[in-house]
Amino acid sequence: MNQTLAIRPAEERLEDTMINKLRTLLTILILAFGAVPPVTEAEDGVHASVVTDEDDDEAILMESEWISMHLLPWRQALINRFVFRPTGNDIVAPTNPKHRMGGGGGILMDCLWEQDWRFQELAYKQYKYKVTKNGPDEAQVVFETDITGWLGSDNSGMVSNLLSNLTLRRMVTLKAGQPFFRFDIEFINNDRWAKRPTFWVHNNSILRGGSGKDTVVRPTDAALAAIGGDQEAYAGPQGMQFIDNFTHGWSAKLSKERREGIVYLMDFDYVGKLYNCFENHGESGTSEWWYNSILSFSKQPWKGRVYILPMIGLSRVDHANPHFICAMEPRREEGQLVVDFALTSSYESAAQVTLVTEVRYNLAGEKPATVQAEPLIIDNLAIQPTRARLAVELDAPDPLLFKVKAFVELPEGDVKTYTFQRFYTGDYRLKSNIRNVGAGPLVTLDRPVQNPLVPPVPAGLSINRKDFKVFGIHGVGTLRLGLEQAVKNDIPAAVYETGYCVGFDAPQNGLTDFPYDYERLYDHRVLVLSNVQDREFRRVGASILLPWLEAGGGLVMVGGPFAFSFEHREHPINSRYPFVPQENTLRRGPLQLQPPDMPDHPIFAGIKLDNLPWLHFYHDLDLKKDSGARVLMRVGDQPFIVERVHEKQRTIAVTINPFGKEAFFDGKLHVRNWDQWPNLFVNIVKYAGHGN
User: Fold this and answer.
1) Exposed site from 114, 389, 515, 660, fewest CB < 10 Å?
2) Distance of CA 449 to CAs 264, 307, 649, Å?
3) Over residues 528-533, mean pLDDT
4) CATH classification of 319-424, choosing from 3.40.630.30, 3.30.380.10, 2.60.40.1940, 2.40.10.10?
5) Cβ neighbours for 458, distance < 8 A, ≥ 6 positions apart
């Protein structure tokens, strides 16, 4: 695998300067006191060099006075060796990623959610690379590869337009004097229309090793969620966990005994889920997350940044941000509530941090109350913890909710403010944020609204009503309904583009197409959502759709097992939906269609209603009150066709379900086989698109 690539640097290969292990005394000091003696610079300063590792494979060695790591160009540039010099511990080599080819290994492994991570096209791919900076103050290596865009696995036979013709560029940067490194991601679009990869960052490392377990911590709106190890299990079960109610863009992995760990800081606005997994024997674990709102336009690549911060001296993590990492240890002491704070530095400098802490108590009672502690001022943040203590006169039962507002004074004098919360169970008998077994939470922690980049609508752009173009997002079973054929057969020169998906968010699958570009979207009159959740096009897609709907774009919603759940319930697009968001609305029938409530409505023009068919499965739905939604036709006593008009925008929902076999329902004619169904659907599409 010792290959010379086209963009490999021409400079001579530097000698591999493998670091010596730190003396036993340094390790004892760190473990006992969290203190870090001054660290001298590496012999050759900060540098990047091409080396041959112990297996005679080509690797990139990047070193500073704080960090030494190996990156493997032949396996997508993941990090298979990572030593934090003050401790001398290689926390990646025990996972042995080079010899676990069927599993994950190393730090910063590239994955696409739409592909099986074991068999994806990036898994064992050789990346081109170039050393762009080589010390003494900064080392930087740029890696690059092109993405075909397979769904499922490499060479699966199906390519998603939202993944294809992309270039993934990774840049790893290490600077002198900084005990962390930076990982920049860029998706470059080589096509005309926007791309939306769901990028999944996989990190595997071991801190404690042997028979012990590490702990992974994630912030959620219920409490901190921890898996692995014997540290306090803040919330949630042990084992695999997807966290979609995260409150901040960080994840931490640590060893309580060694007081050593890694904190990953990523962009909150683009994170879709935090995910972590521990193997059964407990000696390996992952820290992972995936981005679900990436949009890469032909003239505007998407760029993201991750900071990887080694951490020593802390046995827990309660919060992390660009300026500090924080641990809190509350306890009771003679009628007082005492909280020990420990702060370490992050990737941005802070001259001073002032913590203002509120404690909310009587959470399980009828009248919760709040007490505010005196401010704590903390100076001189460094890699080793800086500690401070507050005490509050409080004799109230657990649990407690802490709200901490941190005022960070920057070296240049400006002030930044961060707010975080900690749910403390203490002696609370349920040991979790619930009021009772099977009941809801006592409190819900604050979760900021995510704001991924949404480009402005170009001035003067209007919906194309000269042509009749429809875009359909088709989930499972849609083919049975014949939607595309009906439109093309009835409307001369109609164009019906389609993005396919399973209908709900599932690994190794993905939406194959969607008009994320306003130029493309506004060229369509109507959008058809058939048996899909709206999270299939992500929150950023909902934000792209909203101005098009406000401009009069027609929305047609078609039923099925995954329809009408409306995952983006807090998004303004939800105001365009006629139904109250509900889960599991599908019910077994059969129910027969009833004569229209509004027979003079344009959608019933030319429709023969003398032999009304049946729905074998129907939707049990409630219309939104005061929304202007009205029922045009029913199936049994349930809504079948519902209209909601908002100014010039028309939404029509049809609760048809594509499933059900007539032989199992006494031969009752299913709506999909009704000879009037194609004409009725075409009338609905025409009406939504202002075609009649």
Assistant:
1) 389
2) 21, 22, 26
3) 96
4) 2.60.40.1940
5) 518, 519
* pLDDT at res. 102: 53
Residue 318 CA to residue 313 CA, distance in Å, equals 14
Looking at residue 234, what is its pLDDT? 45
Residue 38 in this model has a pLDDT that exceeds 50: no
Report percent pLDDT > 70 for the chain: 89
Residue 207 and residue 84: Cα distance in Å, rounded?
Answer: 11
CA dist 582 and 605 (Å) reads: 32
Edge-to-edge strand order for the sheet containing 78-84? 47-52, 58-63, 67-72, 78-84, 89-90
Do the domains spanning 24-312 and 469-688 agree at the CATH topology level? no
Domain ranges of the chain: 24-312, 319-424, 469-688
Closest CA to 553 of 526, 521, 593, 589: 526
Per the structure block, which two tokens stand in for 362?
């009587």
Burial of 440 (0-12, 13-18, 19+ CB in 10 A): exposed
Assess contact for 91 and 84: CB atoms under 8 A: yes
Amino acid, single-letter form, for residue 319: H
C-alpha to C-alpha distance for 348 and 323, rounded to whole angstroms: 5
pLDDT band at 211 (very low <50, low <70, confident <90, very high): low
Nearest to 687 by CA among 600, 615, 618: 600
How many helices and strands (H and E) does the chain possess? 5, 37
Q: What is the pLDDT of residues 43-96, one digit of tens each?
A: 568 999 999 988 888 999 999 999 999 999 999 999 999 999 999 989 888 776
The fold for domain 469-688 equals Rossmann fold (3.40.50)
Six-digit token string for 359: 């404690």
pLDDT digit string (tens) for 254-291?
Answer: 988 889 999 999 999 999 999 888 755 445 578 999 99
C-beta of residue 682 within 8 angstroms of C-beta of residue 491: yes
Q: For 658-682, what is each residue's pLDDT tens digit?
A: 999 999 999 999 999 999 999 999 9
Q: Which CATH number fits domain 24-312: 2.30.110.10, 2.70.98.10, 3.30.300.30, 2.40.50.100?
A: 2.70.98.10
Q: What is the pLDDT of residue 233?
A: 45
